[in-house]
Amino acid sequence: MTTNNWWQKSIVYQIYPKSFQDSNNDGIGDLRGIINRLDYIKELGVDIIWLNPIYRSPNVDNGYDISDYQAIQPDFGSMADFQELLDKIHQKNMKIMMDLVVNHSSDEHEWFKASRQGKNNSKRDFYIWRDPVDGHEPTNWGSYFSGSTWTLDKTSGQYYLHLFAKEQPDLNWESPQMRHSVYDMMNWWADKGVDGFRMDVINLISKPAKFQDGSVDLGETYADVEPIVSNGHKIHQYLQEMNKNVMKHHNLVTVGETPAASPDDAKKYANLDSTELNMVFQFEHMSLDANKNPALGKWGDRRTTLSELRANLTKWQLALTNKAWNSLYWNNHDQPRVVSRFGNDCPEYRVVSAKMLATMLHFMQGTPYIYQGEELGMTNANFDNLTDYKDLETLNIYQQLVNDEQLVSSTTMMNYIKLHSRDNARTPMQWDNSTNAGFSQQQPWLAVNPNYPEINVKTELADENSVFHYYQKLIKLRHTMPVITDGRYQLIDGNELDEDVFTYIRENADTKLVIILNFTNQTITRNYQLPIKKTLLISNYTEDLGSTLRPYEAKVYKI
Ligand code: NOJ
């Protein structure tokens, strides 16, 4: 299997610009703030910076509603600031990955403004319009952000499709003119010097040939749209066309966000000939703790068991070997904080469990992604009041489940929100223990996590045992040990059903690594009969007690 592509050896750091660093004290992070913090990112040791959308946007969905793909959102700065950021990232020998949001645009994009002018407008078919059926929405599809996927345009009497908010109309990939306008825009950014694209919900762009109602589970008003629109019949055709028109002409890295993609889908999207994308973000391990009641979706309080997690990650590791390339992630701007979700964020175990989870991920095969603050062991926000949350997904689902459908009590829903709201990831980056965690002098757009006096960059840089320094070591190991990139993944015999300890092996022709991870807060014993001659590569405890594993202990032996 070829593992020589630069992006296979890279580590990506994801920045959510709105929450990273505010340089002009308006409470909103910006490009200049990122420029001022590049030394910090470089010190961590990563290779690529992925920026969430920074394009002009009315901000209904924090930049995932783009009104001009070739302009910078004024809150974030100017195109000159962007150019400076790009140049400085390159000077520091790092690369930059842009977010590409082309399943939908904003309803304030010029294309949509023209399209909604009427049936005869030349941009009408840039979006997806349908006549009412029996005076109603064309189908019963439910949007990702609650309510119908259809909004009526009174002037023309037709509905337009939006899988997300009504301000995020879906682009019509059936239109060759629309597709080529997207490729032109991508080439414009690539010519500017950007090094890659993270493609938002890219496997939703090919809609079904025939629009039909989906099935509705008990308690739901609308049908789940995801199985209806994901991995559609023309998706590979579109991605191959995009690849020929854009990727082939530049040395880019591409990662597709692909909800509902199976390993078989991923083998096509991220095939090793790179005829489509380089890798995908799969969602399965992020959905293991979803509510058993489909009407509640991700909103629940179940924790993933270790056997579920191991079985799932092992399935992906094995299925993609020699066929496609994995991306590895615990966190992003849509997911709760990993230490709160899969580890233990109480003060006694936060650091050790954050390091254990990092070890699990960073020794697997694929390209690791680190989301801002993950390298500090930042935790969920734990806000008590709904008014502290700003994300439209959270606010809409509360309205839907508590007020409209009355499926969940307010107290239960607040607990679910504390566990799953996307705002858990979006609280401002914690730089130091000064006002607003050093993020801004002004009240930030979203409250800072109150634990910032204990958890922040300044404290962690000064402490050689911090989560930050542990991530730094993991990154160095990946850069220096080819087995982490190219080794075979294998479970250790008998570990498949262990509910407490996850142990796996990575092995190539010269090196064998054994990764041992205690997922519990208990001291337990596991004897794997490992050879006496072995080196401890990294561990989150200073002393090695052999077969005794302390709470959340992680250790990696080289054999
Ligand atoms: C996925 C993005 O990650 C999320 O933040 C956004 O709300 C939706 N796509 C819609 O663009």
UniProtKB/TrEMBL annotation:
SUPFAM superfamilies in the cross-refs: (Trans)glycosidases, Glycosyl hydrolase domain
Keywords attached to this entry: Glycosidase, Hydrolase
GO molecular function: alpha-amylase activity
Pfam families: Alpha-amylase
Domain of life of the native organism: Bacteria
InterPro entries: GH (IPR017853), GH13_cat_dom (IPR006047), Glyco_hydro_b (IPR013780), O16G_dom_2 (IPR045857)
Family affiliation: Belongs to the glycosyl hydrolase 13 family.
GO biological process, one term: oligosaccharide catabolic process
Protein name (database record): Alpha-glucosidase
